[in-house]
Amino acid sequence: MYRLFSERNGWKWIPFEIDRIKSSTTGVRSAIVSIEGECCYAKLRFEGGVHRVQRTPVTDKTRIHTSTSSIAILPEPETPELVIQPGDLRKETMRSSGAGGANVNANSTAVRLTHIPTGISVKAQDERYLQVNEKLAHKRLSAILLKRQIDQINSKYSGTRKLQVGSSERSEKIRTFNYKDNRVVDHRLK
């Protein structure tokens, strides 16, 4: 259904994962696809929700089968770039604890970096030299801040998906496709 709509609009349809029903030739249990093209998100973003399909099965022409599908339309998240300004960091040097001999006892080789805007701090004292520990602490802090950014993006998209799909029950339907009568009903327009 959406594949044909995409092709008619000149968009690129890229299936990532399609889980088909084994006993059926056309049935799809779940699918993840990417649609690329001009204004595709603007046109598709209101398609998210529960869709009800009414069809006549091939084996019995007197009955109507009703099934539902949950559609979530999400823009592809951009990869976050992490830029840590030097003014956002507070650096403290101290003596390392533990084994290390005279170098550990005489020199400050441990470092603690604190990211001032978030209050996150990391300490590195694994290596023998201050510069190496400073690079290690910077690497650890960058990893923590990047994970935090990714988690924020994921929670934003997960909230958007939850708003679109809800609990995926039939009562939350936004549209009904009746193939027998060749009719589409949009329940949001009533």
From TrEMBL:
GO CC annotations on file: cytoplasm
InterPro entries in the record: PCRF (IPR005139), Pep_chain_release_fac_I (IPR000352), Pep_chain_release_fac_I_sf (IPR045853), Prokaryotic/Mito_RF (IPR050057)
Prokaryotic-type class I peptide chain release factors domain sequence ranges: 81-188
Descriptive protein name: Uncharacterized protein
Keywords on record: Methylation, Protein biosynthesis
Molecular function terms, GO-annotated: translation release factor activity
Every Peptide chain release factor domain range: 1-71
Pfam families: PCRF, RF-1
Domain of life assignment: Eukaryota
Family affiliation: Belongs to the prokaryotic/mitochondrial release factor family.
